[in-house]
Amino acid sequence: MTTELTGAQKCAILVLLLEEAQAAELLRRLDPAEVRAVGEAMLTVAEIEPAAIDAVLDEFLSRTANVAALDAQGRQVRARIGRALGQPRAGRIIDEIGPPAAPRRFAMLDWLDAPTIATLLDDEHPQAVTLVLAHLREPQAAAVLDALPAPVRADVVPRLATLKPVQAQVIAELEADLDAKLATQTAPVNDTALAGTDFTARLVKLSNNRALLLEALAGVDPALAEEVAAQQFVFADIMALGPKDMQLVLREADPALLPVALKGADADILARVFASMSSRAAAQLQDELAERGPLKRADVEAARAELCAVVRRLGEAGTIMMPGAAGAYV
Predict the structure, then answer these.
(1) Fold of 233-316
(2) Residue 84: band (very low, low, confident or very high) from pLDDT cuts 50, 70, 90
(3) What residue ranges do the domains of the chain occupy?
(4) H helices of 162-296, where?
(5) With left for phi above 0 and alpha for psi between -120 and 50, is residue 268 left, alpha or beta?
(6) What span, in angstroms and rounded, lies between the C-alpha atoms of 161 and 153?
(7) CA–CA separation, 228 vs 28, rounded Å?
(8) 30: which residues sit within 8 A by CB, 6+ positions away?
(9) Identical topology for domains 104-192 and 233-316
(10) pTM for the full predicted model
(11) Buried-most residue among 16, 114, 190, 212 (CB within 10 A)?
């Protein structure tokens, strides 16, 4: 029975059965992506059958029955590595990986975006900033480095290149200081974008109630509704149209619009458009594209926006199937 559940759903069931403090402690040990996956899974198991819950608990107890807790020094892990690799190679590897199951330093920064971390480090010594960057995952560290003021970047980069081993106590103290600084924040360290127009447009695009949502938004802010509506179908989405829908769009579009809108388009888009036309019409359009000289980017973008408006109009009328919303058509 539990084989039908994902790992995230099984974890979600266990979290929901724990006391709030225990659940919070468990989630605190997960990384942001894992917390997001478990959080989403909680919504899918809210009404799960008791038998399935019992099965998950049985599986959990079965898997943990023979698991012995590691002591603080990790003797079991050290012994196994020693037997597998021998000395002194095992010793070197153990020294490199550090204490088993030790939490990664500055993991609390995983929850913050790069500008927020840069602001948090604003009053720190460049050496402290260097130390923090050295402990972040490379993509995040690069983003934080870009977000730092130029003079700080110029100071930090040489320090990163020449950073020597640092005492564990110094690292722990810096981590504790930053953790305390975060705890005293009464407002966000930096304005972190949680949603915004792009995010809203994507949600509306995936909704089965797209028209109703846009209508409601228009009642509050017509200009914003127009901006969100414009993102419901962008030029690159042409590739997601079915053959029949593409033919309908091409019939409805102004013939003079197509050569401008398709100027500089990807080969895949051009091939999809040509395949949806008669041989004679496709050849004529290809000739027009070949004969036209350079066009202003603004004119091309305007033509593409007009073509997308045709697609949205046909989609709102139910004439074609708009890509994106699952389950909107049967």
Answers:
(1) Annexin V; domain 1 (1.10.220)
(2) low
(3) 2-64, 74-102, 104-192, 233-316
(4) 168-183, 196-206, 210-220, 222-230, 243-252, 257-261, 267-275, 279-291
(5) alpha
(6) 12
(7) 36
(8) 38
(9) yes
(10) 0.40
(11) 114
